[in-house]
């Protein structure tokens, strides 16, 4: 599973009852909408959620630089914590992923 490439940005939009946040990738590719108060999430929390989503691709790439991906024996803290997160982000833990059986 691959995520949309390019820099992701967050834009505040106003709907009838709420201020939502749209996530876009470079080239105005629509990624998602983060809903706020209309679904019971305070606007400040919705904005924090949107900013976290925007940072996710860069955090994933940074984590891949830190973790020893080619070393199945390493038991350092970065690998113990990071490898499952990378698998989760890339959908490898999902039964429909082609590497699911080999990685579990």
Description:
By secondary structure, this protein is an alpha+beta fold. It has two domains: 1-56, no CATH class; 67-104, no CATH class. 39% of the residues lie in helices and 19% in strands. The chain is built from three helices and three strands; from the N terminus they run βββααα. The protein has helices spanning 43-66, 77-89, 100-103; strands at residues 8-14, 19-25, 29-34. It has a three-stranded antiparallel β-sheet with strand order 1-2-3, covered by helices on one side. A hairpin with a 4-residue loop joins strand 1 (8-14) and strand 2 (19-25). The chain is elongated and about 55 Å long. The chain starts with 7 loop residues before the first strand and ends with a helix.
Largest sheet: 3 strands, antiparallel
Total DSSP E strands = 3
Number of domains: 2
Largest sheet: spatial strand order: 1-2-3
Q: H/E element string?
A: EEEHHH
What is the terminal separation in angstroms? Answer: 17 Å
Q: State the helical fraction.
A: 25-40%
Number of helices: 3
% residues in beta strands: 15-25%
Keywords:
104 residues; alpha+beta; 2 domains; three-stranded antiparallel sheet; 3 helices; 3 strands; disordered C terminus
Question: What's the short version?
Answer:
The protein is of the alpha+beta class.
Topology:
Blueprint: E1 8-14, E2 19-25, E3 29-34, H1 43-66, H2 77-89, H3 100-103
Antiparallel strand pairs: 1-2, 2-3
């Amino acid at each position: 599973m691959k995520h949309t490439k390019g820099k992701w940005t967050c834009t505040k939009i106003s709907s009838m009852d709420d201020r939502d946040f749209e996530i876009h990738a470079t080239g105005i590719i629509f990624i998602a909408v983060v809903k706020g108060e209309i679904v019971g999430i305070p606007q400040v929390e919705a904005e924090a959620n949107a900013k976290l989503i925007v940072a996710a691709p860069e955090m994933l790439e940074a984590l891949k630089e830190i973790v020893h991906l080619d070393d199945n024996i390493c038991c350092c803290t970065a690998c113990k914590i990071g490898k499952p997160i990378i698998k989760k982000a890339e959908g490898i833990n999902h039964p429909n992923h082609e590497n699911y059986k080999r990685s579990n």
